[in-house]
């Protein structure tokens, strides 16, 4: 399978704990995105990497959230001191620079976080 | 604030009919437009992309873009029960990062 992969698929944690999610993009893709989706809503942008550089962070991403993409390969998203409001599906997508800048993003299966 | 609007539905069509899904967006500078299909409990799956005015066809799917009216639509011909899902419209509003802004999605139900 050469698609985007995410791990874990499900995570249940208690409020106040730290959690870390991993995303492995499609191998030739240089761009990687994190989104968050709650029930009944479309995905919301969190952050974006081009290669190893984190180029934009949404205002949704509080200081409890941090993301890395060492060596421009896989990425991790860490949430510290989780809150019940962090419960959501965390989606990773990847893309590559296309002709004319067009950019199709392909999503991984997501990590569903439940904070008790 | 740049926004993408979709009718939340549900939209119900009989099997074999044409399903029409609509989306409007707020920024005339928008560059790229995408339709994703999302089954319940699953992640979004890209089904169509469109970048210029007019129609783009791929199998049973046709995307239509009208930048002057800030409107993009998706037609599904010969709808099948397996098409029952939420359809998400996504727009890249330009800039250097190509992030997507999504609508809330339209729930489509195809009745056998």
Brief overview:
The complex is a heterodimer of chains A (116) and B (112). Chain A has 116 residues and is mainly β. Chain A is 0% helix and 48% strand.
Please describe what this structure looks like.
The complex is a heterodimer of chains A (116) and B (112). The model of chain A has no long low-confidence stretch (mean pLDDT 93). In chain A, strands 2, 4, 5, 6, 9, 10 and 11 form a 7-stranded mixed beta sheet that branches. In chain A, strands 1-3-8-7 form a 4-stranded antiparallel beta sheet, with no helix packed on it. Chain A contains no helices and 11 strands. Chain A starts with a strand and ends with a strand. By secondary structure, chain A is mainly beta. In chain A, strand 5 (44-50) and strand 6 form a beta hairpin. With 112 residues, chain B is mainly β. Chain B has strands at 4-6, 11-14, 19-25, 32-38, 45-50, 54-58, 61-66, 71-76, 85-92, 100-102, 106-111. In chain B, strand 6 (54-58) and strand 7 (61-66) form a beta hairpin. The radius of gyration of chain B is 13 Å and the shape is globular. Classes of the chains: A mainly beta (116), B mainly beta (112). The interface between A and B is medium-sized, with 27 and 25 residues.
